[in-house]
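Practice problem 4.
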């Protein structure tokens, strides 16, 4: 059983009760807007797909096996939700994220002015700092001049916050199966949305991940030290951007184990109510957190937020104000 590296996404020590989304708005409460009109939504009309892999890296995460699934047709955002889209949501509703309400969120230490201050470091992963004032529009806290760029993914968003946005937007978070099916873009048991060739630190940079020695030295050969614009890099076979790397993406479902092995259940004993995240982030590297693969998975508490976690939505019917572009039709 491959060892699980700790703290891909740190969680709040005093977690709220799971599945309790605050400020939840009526579904479809969004007003008409030019921003919504410009949204690029892809139709995924295949109903037969796959989830998992027969080539797991972290067996402890239950990445295996590769197995068939049946899905209803759905529509999915081509990109993660951006800062500009989230700003529109906030402007129309007055919504406050959990990071804003609680007054802090987790920030990668290199983005802090005093990255040597370890007072608020996560013990198992000291590159994470619980930072006062960090939230979606102040991604490195109130003592930083780092701003939330409009076309970049919104981060410092909890699962509960993503649920609030989804309710307003008339969509929902994807299931893990929907997310994986969309990420494959028509490929079978491929490791990545583009195939099986792994990114490296020298000459192949198909996504936004870490290059160099983590966490000391990011070579930034893919062009980014943090988030990249949501439309960066080449899309997959369905036209979806950044399905791996850039930011982790919340799914709608809770983390549950299929295995009855006591050892495995002991490892995951603290994940009651946690929600599955997919895709990896700009902090992933094969030497540490090789989770920028389609079948890879992690989980976090629904009230936790970090500087590398965002989300995208799916829709059961095509949104009226966003003509969907078809993906692959079975």
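Answer key:
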């Amino acid at each position: 059983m491959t060892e699980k590296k700790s703290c891909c996404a740190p969680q709040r020590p005093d977690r709220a009760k799971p599945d309790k989304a605050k400020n939840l708005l009526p579904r479809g409460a969004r007003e008409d807007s030019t921003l919504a009109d410009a949204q690029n939504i892809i139709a995924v009309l295949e109903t037969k797909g796959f989830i998992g892999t027969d080539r797991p890296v972290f067996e402890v995460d239950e990445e295996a096996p590769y197995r068939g699934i049946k899905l209803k047709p759905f529509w999915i955002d081509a990109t993660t939700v951006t800062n500009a889209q989230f700003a529109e949501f906030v402007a129309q509703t007055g919504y406050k994220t959990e990071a804003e309400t609680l007054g802090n969120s987790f920030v990668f230490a290199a983005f802090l002015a005093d990255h040597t201050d370890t007072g608020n470091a996560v013990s198992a992963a000291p590159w994470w700092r619980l930072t006062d004032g960090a939230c979606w529009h102040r991604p490195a806290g109130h003592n930083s001049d780092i701003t939330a760029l409009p076309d970049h993914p919104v981060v410092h968003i909890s699962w509960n916050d993503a649920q609030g946005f989804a309710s307003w937007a008339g969509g929902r978070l994807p299931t893990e199966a929907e997310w994986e099916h969309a990420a494959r873009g028509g490929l079978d048991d491929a490791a990545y949305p583009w195939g099986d060739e792994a990114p490296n630190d020298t000459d192949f940079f198909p996504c936004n991940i870490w290059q160099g020695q983590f966490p000391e030295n990011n070579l930034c050969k893919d062009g980014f030290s943090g988030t990249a614009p949501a439309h960066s890099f080449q899309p997959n076979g369905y036209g979806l951007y950044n399905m791996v790397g850039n930011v982790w993406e919340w799914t709608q479902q809770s983390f549950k184990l299929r295995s009855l092995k006591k050892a495995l259940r002991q490892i995951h004993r603290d994940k009651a109510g946690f929600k599955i995240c997919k895709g990896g982030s700009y902090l992933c590297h094969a030497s540490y957190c090789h989770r920028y693969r389609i079948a890879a998975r992690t989980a976090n508490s629904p009230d936790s937020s970090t500087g590398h976690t965002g989300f995208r939505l799916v829709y059961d019917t095509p949104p009226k104000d966003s003509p969907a572009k078809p993906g692959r039709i079975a």
